[in-house]
Design a protein that fits this description.
Elements: H1 4-15, H2 23-38, E1 50-51, E2 55-56, E3 58-62, H3 72-78, E4 81-86, H4 89-97, E5 107-111, H5 130-139, E6 149-155, H6 158-169, H7 176-194, E7 195-209, H8 221-233, H9 243-255, E8 260-273, E9 276-287
Parallel strand pairs: 3-4, 3-6, 4-5, 6-7
Antiparallel strand pairs: 1-2, 7-9, 8-9
Bound molecules: S-adenosylmethionine (SAM).
Amino acid sequence: MESAAAAQQTRNAQTRHARDEYGPHRQLVMKVISHAQRHDVQHLGTQPQMRGGNRLQSLCLLGVGNGNDVELNELVTWFERVELVDIDGTAMHWARVQVPEGPRNRLHIHPTDVSGIFSCLGRSAYSGDADQLIRRAHDAEVTLPFQPCDVVVSSCMLTQLIDAAVDAVGIDALFLDDLASAIVDRHLRLLLELTADEGRAVLITDFVSSDTFPDLPDLPQHELRRAVARQLETGNFFVGMHPGTLKRRWLALAAHRRPINKIELRGPWRWQLGSRTLAVVALTAQLADMPTPK
Ligand SMILES: C[S@@+](CC[C@H](N)C(=O)[O-])C[C@H]1O[C@@H](n2cnc3c(N)ncnc32)[C@H](O)[C@@H]1O
């Protein structure tokens, strides 16, 4: 049985040369990133952009994989440092060397399991102790060797974390909702931990697909939002991935740790991936200044 990490590597190897297919999705992801940093920008164009007049901005991309859903060439002109995080070091290395030498030095690779539980997934590794797995998912230690970034983006990876858990414990496991909640909570907290004061944390996630919503690919654009809302009302979305619930959950988690000024929701938009169409949203959290400890 392939390990959870190896399964991601196989999938990334299969999609490495499918960059063209990601085009429309990539444009929207780039727009979301641009919006997340634009308000602070003082210098546009090919120069790295300044924040607050004296500091260059940094970006962290979680789940960057092959980099098919971003323009790394462009991002290295927007940000002084770009931290690339994924469980698949080979995919990130491939993405990095597509950027010319020189600007490439702004890209820093961190092969890391951001869920902290992949080593206990994979059917042979899961020991059957549900409570322990849930606790582990909730409290996972994830250490990354860089300073909090001005913009942190998790791009279509959260569903991969939950899919890996579903593969390990089975879709009918009674504790699946609890496990998914623990994974989601840990990921939302990680985004807060990695984001600098007054920065932006962005969760881009797919939440329903044409597998259970076959009309999705053919809907006229102007009907998309309403049709997707109907699917959400009837419970047709991936385990733990209702965008409204994610937003509420994130605000609640932040209240105890890092105050969020507001969360903006963009989308839904459609992402065509092979024969499947996915509906995707972006939640951009605007972090407040860190309160001074009393
Ligand atoms: C659907 S892909 C996103 C598309 C990707 N940004 C690209 O353009 O190729 C999800 C990414 O999440 C990564 N991933 C999945 N589980 C992970 C984990 N536990 N820790 C870190 N990265 C993980 C996968 O390796 C993959 O690159």
